[in-house]
Design brief:
147 residues, mainly alpha, 79% helix, globular
Length: 147
């Protein structure tokens, strides 16, 4: 038996680590795009261009669809979808509370504002982001299952 025909060659392990790394990169990419689109949708008064904010929900939905379409297997799709969801949620929360450290607030003001802003960020992430990202992702999985 040759080395390439066994599990000892390391080729299988290398291929698996590349697959996991690719899944993580796809998930983080879709999550960052969806998270920022959802953040700007929730804070639409910060938009510089006069555009309908519902277009940003379309971007969030497309990120959920791409989380499935960029994957080769259902296992990878689930991995990419979950990584995308959690990285997008973290992006929303980070973008929401980042001004507390970018603007020169006193430490007392930060302590007062942090719970309020973190609560608003988590609520916005749960209500808008979860529904649009997972709704589009699950719709893409369902449509592909029937095709």
């Amino acid at each position: 038996m040759t080395e390439s025909a066994t599990e000892w060659s390391g080729e299988h392990t290398g291929r698996r680590s590349w697959s996991v790394a690719a899944s993580l990169l796809k998930g983080v990419g879709t999550g960052l795009v969806a998270g920022m689109a959802s953040f700007v949708y929730n804070m639409s008064d910060l938009m510089a261009v006069n555009v309908d904010p519902t277009l940003l929900l379309v971007v969030t939905m497309l990120s959920g669809v791409f989380a499935h379409l960029l994957s080769k297997t259902l296992r990878e799709s689930i991995r990419v979808g979950l990584v995308g969801y959690f990285s997008g949620g973290a992006t929303i929360v980070a973008a929401w509370i980042a001004p507390l450290w970018m603007v020169p607030y006193s430490s007392g003001a930060r302590e007062i504002l942090l719970p309020k802003l973190a609560g608003e960020a988590v609520t916005a992430a749960f209500l808008v982001y979860t529904a649009t990202f997972f709704g589009a992702y699950l719709a893409a999985v369902t449509v592909e299952a029937y095709l």
